[in-house]
Design goal:
- By secondary structure, the protein is α/β, with parallel strands linked by helices.
- The protein has two domains: 140 residues, Rossmann fold; 170 residues, 3-Layer(aba) Sandwich (Rossmann fold), CATH 3.40.50.
- The relative contact order is 0.12.
- It starts with 7 loop residues before the first strand and ends in a 5-residue tail after the last helix.
- The protein is globular and about 60 Å long.
- Helix 1 packs parallel to helix 11 and helix 5 crosses helix 6.
- The strands form two sheets. A five-stranded parallel sheet has the order 3-2-1-4-5, sandwiched between helices. The protein has a five-stranded parallel sheet with strand order 7-6-8-9-10, with helices on both faces.
- It has 13 helices and ten strands.
């Protein structure tokens, strides 16, 4: 990194929960290695992710009114004036961030989004495109905004700092579900239905866990909880920080490709992730030493970037992964076996 670049940066990253969580590792890495400090601009509902982060001095949360109810050029000029003594790290790569960069007075750096490579790979499945995309995960791609070479993914694991009070909240929530530390957290939900392991598989998994005497609790948010009459179903019982605190009490999280998958990693809890429409090439695979991914090598994968494309094959990529296979993998993750 050139010495002429500033030590203070404003990071622009809106979008989904997981995208912001994945940025926390690079921010911590830059702070530890380069002494950089950050202001982060994100959606206000995601701002709690950054509370207590060792490299973040300020979070500017934008609500929907600012994002859709006001002319964006005016908001961009306001942000540029407020953060005028910093460089801009565009970790989003959208029209909004391009407009912001156009009015920024300091240096602007962007990460390689590989948009064209992703589109071409989705259509062609060409091997050289797969190798290019799989060579760097999203946190590594973020670091290329400032670095000539990306660090090892193990150096960029997401980071969420919990307070002692929040950890106590996590213990209380686990006790409410009748489980102690080390339970298996289950996250059966996904923003896009085609990214979700079939609900009947999740239900069968809970029955098999009960048969083996393995404690579990359901986490996350959804309009239709998995087991609404079971005290171990904590669906919709937590806000973002409380969910992190609860995940910190878990021995592992079994989950679809989702934001909570990255939250678990950020509090040091290993994950067992089920991937279907999305794949390693998109850069979102968990990278912890005990993390494990279950997937099927099918010619139709990946079928979309975020899993929102309706499936004509009954989601065979996920449906063909059976509950016993997930249970066996969960035993390994809970037992401390490396992924």
């Amino acid at each position: 990194m050139r010495h002429s670049l500033p030590e203070r940066w404003t990071v622009f990253r809106l979008s989904a929960l997981g995208d912001l969580v994945l940025a926390t590792g690079p921010l911590a890495w830059w702070n530890a290695r380069r002494g950089l400090r950050f202001t982060v601009v994100t959606r206000d509902r995601l701002a709690p992710v950054l509370a207590g982060h060792p490299a973040v001095d300020e979070v500017i949360g934008l609500d929907e009114t600012r994002l859709t109810g006001e002319p964006w050029p005016a908001v961009a000029r306001e942000l540029a004036a407020r953060c005028r003594d910093t460089g801009l790290l565009d970790l989003h790569g959208t029209l909004r961030s391009r407009v912001l960069g156009a009015v920024w007075s300091g240096p602007v750096r962007r990460y390689p989004k590989f948009s064209l490579s992703r589109r071409l790979f989705q259509r062609t499945r060409l091997g050289f495109l797969r190798r290019r995309l799989e060579a760097l995960n999203v946190p590594q791609r973020y670091t290329l905004a400032l670095e000539a070479e990306a660090p090892h993914p193990g150096e960029l694991l997401p980071l969420i700092r919990l307070t002692a009070e929040e950890r106590e909240t996590g213990r209380e929530l686990a006790a409410r579900a009748g489980v102690g530390p080390g339970f298996l957290a289950l996250h059966p939900y996904a923003t896009h239905p085609d990214k979700a392991w079939p609900r009947e598989h999740w239900l069968e998994l809970t029955r098999r866990l009960d048969a083996e005497g393995l404690p579990w609790a359901v986490v996350g948010r959804d309009a239709v909880p998995l087991l609404p009459n079971d005290p171990r179903d904590l669906t919709n019982a937590t806000d973002l920080r409380a969910l992190c605190a609860l995940l910190a009490q878990a021995g592992a999280l079994a989950t679809n490709d989702s934001g909570p998958m990255h939250l678990a990693s950020a509090v040091g809890t290993p994950v067992l992730a089920l991937f279907g429409p999305t794949a390693r090439a998109w850069g979102f695979f968990p990278a912890g030493p005990r993390d494990r991914v279950l997937e099927r090598d099918l010619p139709c994968r990946p079928c979309s970037l975020h899993g929102g494309t309706p499936c004509a094959t009954g989601r065979a990529c996920l449906a063909s992964i059976g509950p016993e296979e997930v249970l066996d993998a969960a035993r390994g993750v809970l037992g401390g076996e490396p992924g």
